[in-house]
Design goal:
alpha/beta, globular, three-stranded parallel sheet, four-stranded parallel sheet, 23% helix, 20% strand, 150 residues
């Protein structure tokens, strides 16, 4: 996970003068996307099966997630997950159908800008700090998470 916490350098574009930097950006982006894809895959595997990470802690504090990340139907039950200070920009991030119960998942001070983020059909408790971090970003959350009890 430490690789993902390295400083994120945005795409310098396809200006011919920046060709080498652009290729470096594409290579690093491919590695970052592969790591995120594998993390999502392991959290979607049923607990107790080979290579399942359900029940394991996940620390993506300060990570920039630029592109796709698929945590659809993942389970964050009985573990701690941190997306504190993470930046979600561009691409699609899916937490649809994910389960958040019996553990702690934090989105405190996370930033959502651009792209699409979905928690549609997620179950369990609202992850800490999520609704505050969302702001005006295009994000889908279960209606039950938007209800505030007096």
């Amino acid at each position: 996970m430490c690789y993902l916490q390295l400083p994120f350098t945005p795409d310098p574009g396809d200006d011919p003068a920046q060709k080498e930097e652009h290729h470096r950006y594409l290579a690093f982006r491919k590695v970052r996307h592969t790591i995120l894809r594998l993390i999502g895959h392991h959290y979607r595997r049923p607990k107790g099966t080979h290579r399942s990470w359900q029940g394991c802690d996940l620390d993506l504090t300060g990570v920039t997630i630029h592109g796709e990340m698929d945590f659809e139907n993942a389970s964050f039950s009985g573990s701690r997950g941190s997306f504190r200070d993470a930046t979600f920009s561009g691409g699609k991030v899916w937490f649809g159908g994910a389960t958040f119960s019996g553990g702690e998942v934090l989105f405190d001070d996370a930033t959502f800008s651009g792209g699409e983020v979905s928690f549609a059909d997620a179950t369990g408790s609202v992850p800490a700090g999520l609704l505050t971090a969302v702001g005006a970003a295009p994000i889908t959350v279960p209606q039950a998470w938007l209800r505030v009890d007096p």
